[in-house]
């Protein structure tokens, strides 16, 4: 891929150059957030049943909610590099040559591990369609490859950089995600049964959108023809509903890392004036929509303290009735995508991560 093409794709993926006033505003917001830390440290001691079970997690989640609730999309994207730049930095730090593929419709695919491995995981990162994959994603995926390798499981990862909001809206991200699958099917040695899809939060949303597209081609996206089912798919805390009118939203408001106001804003930015549909809000799809889904094994993981829990459980009930080889794991005392988000506040290995690795070991 040429340097100019990479630069263009990086801009399209979602990066921001702030004005002087935006930078000053960002500094002021960060200072205000830092000032609240002593209060949060004390208040966390008296959190009671409405707070997260873990003190560290309760304080960390509160700070993240405040940060995402205050910053604009441009400010948030300014604070971290686009996914493709993060991948290049990870490759340099870990001393391997980056291998990036420019896909149709503006996406980028990044290889982790040996791309000639027997199985491949196409991974769609989360972040409300507005945040890039941070270094914790690259560590998480690299650890998956290494841990499975120790068990004799040969896996590579193809991580997608898709265009973030507000630079593009639905169905751009789904179109780019479908192209990642199309690329693997058409240019590699992998048969569908060797291919696995994975994603967290908004990435889980994408997984379900791609799965829907395989059985019910989206009218705005070129169809993909499969001669057999995909090997498997896992979703961590999938974002299946853009509504905040769920019991868990009220119950876990002060426990989870996700902020209701930010979630609603991210959903609006993603939809761009459209209404949700079966492809982007999986909970809206009737059970029969998932009949003959083109995937063999499915794993859904959720935390008992997460905002999205109610919508996830309604979705799983519909989905599992049509895709019986679906495993649903509800992890107690953990929140939204703890695999990534709790690792950012010093939690070494979550039960969500252990459950995922156990499932992958069984199905690969």
TrEMBL record:
<keyword id="KW-0378">Hydrolase</keyword>
<dbReference type="InterPro" id="IPR029058">
    <property type="entry name" value="AB_hydrolase_fold"/>
</dbReference>
<dbReference type="InterPro" id="IPR013094">
    <property type="entry name" value="AB_hydrolase_3"/>
</dbReference>
<protein>
    <recommendedName>
        <fullName>Alpha/beta hydrolase fold-3 domain-containing protein</fullName>
    </recommendedName>
</protein>
<dbReference type="GO" id="GO:0016787">
    <property type="term" value="F:hydrolase activity"/>
</dbReference>
<feature type="domain" description="Alpha/beta hydrolase fold-3">
    <location>
        <begin position="121"/>
        <end position="337"/>
    </location>
</feature>
<dbReference type="InterPro" id="IPR050300">
    <property type="entry name" value="GDXG_lipolytic_enzyme"/>
</dbReference>
<dbReference type="Pfam" id="PF07859">
    <property type="entry name" value="Abhydrolase_3"/>
</dbReference>
